Amino acid sequence: MAAAFYERDGDRWIPSELTRGPWDPNAQHAGPPSALIAREIEGLGGGRLGGGEGPESQVGRITYEIVRPVPIAPLTLEAEVVRPGRSVEMVEAELSGDEGVVVRARGWRLRLKDVELSPEPPPDPEPPPGPDQGTPAEFFATGQDIGYHTAMEYRFVEGAFLEPGPATVWMRMRQPLVAGEEPTALQRVMVAADTGNGVSAALDWKRFLFINVDLTVHLARMPEGEWVCLKAATHPQANGVGLTETALYDQRGPIGRANQTLLVDRR
């Protein structure tokens, strides 16, 4: 098995078979490229605003537009600050293959600063039962021995891949995103967040398609530890459009939310 989702070769990114998604053996699951883009975005200016001279920052939101399937082939990645600022910056990124752009992303980075809140806000809701109370569940058949489904570890506390309806699952990476690097907290969230649609399928996989065309992740804070929890529900509509809503947690409590727009159709 490969040592990581990606290796760097000059200005190109070489995906391993760990990035393979469940639908096409030649295309990536959207989680790994989302995390790779997030890596580039959070690293702009060394993680600081103002070209690296300002305060440390945190990604507050990234929206990914999935232009076309991401091939398991060499890719290039460009990111830049398009709206500089002392407190907030807008960032953009493009991931491209031989046929052009495959994913476009835009987001906000916000400065980090200790702020005394008065009166103190109410405490956050408790997180779902932890991964030690979850159960491994069988991934639906992909026809492939290695892929995203083997690169991630799953612990369900509600639902399962093969059970229709809402689900709550803890996920963590078995391998690093980039060879030789320890994944950051942001990377751990983004590699998992796109799975909300998959874990909470409301329709029969064999009879229907429900493919997300985008992913938006809002984060109030970064997760602590290796595990990220997705509490997801998918809402397909008879007009051929749907939505997946996912609450994101670590073992301390809520960290953010993810939404996916779905194209729904019969196979």
SSE map:
Layout: E1 6-9, E2 12-15, H1 31-43, E3 57-66, E4 76-83, E5 88-97, E6 100-111, H2 148-151, E7 152-160, E8 163-173, H3 185-193, H4 196-199, E9 208-212, E10 214-219, E11 228-236, E12 241-249, E13 254-266
Antiparallel strand pairs: 1-2, 3-6, 3-10, 4-5, 5-6, 7-8, 8-11, 9-13, 10-13, 11-12, 12-13
What's a quick, concise take on this entry?
With 267 residues, the protein is mainly beta. It is built from four helices and 13 strands. The strands form two sheets. Strands 3, 4, 5, 6, 7, 8, 9, 10, 11, 12 and 13 form an eleven-stranded antiparallel beta sheet that branches.
Structure description:
The protein has helices at residues 31-43, 148-151, 185-193, 196-199; strands spanning 6-9, 12-15, 57-66, 76-83, 88-97, 100-111, 152-160, 163-173, 208-212, 214-219, 228-236, 241-249, 254-266. The longest helix is centred in the N-terminal third of the chain and has 13 residues, at 31-43. It has four helices and 13 strands. α1 (31-43) packs antiparallel against α3. β11 (228-236) and β12 (241-249) form a beta hairpin. Strands 3, 4, 5, 6, 7, 8, 9, 10, 11, 12 and 13 form an eleven-stranded antiparallel beta sheet that branches. It is 11% helix and 41% strand. It has a single domain, classed as Acyl-CoA thioesterase, double hotdog domain (Porin). The chain starts with 5 loop residues before the first strand and ends with a strand. The protein is mainly beta and 267 residues long.
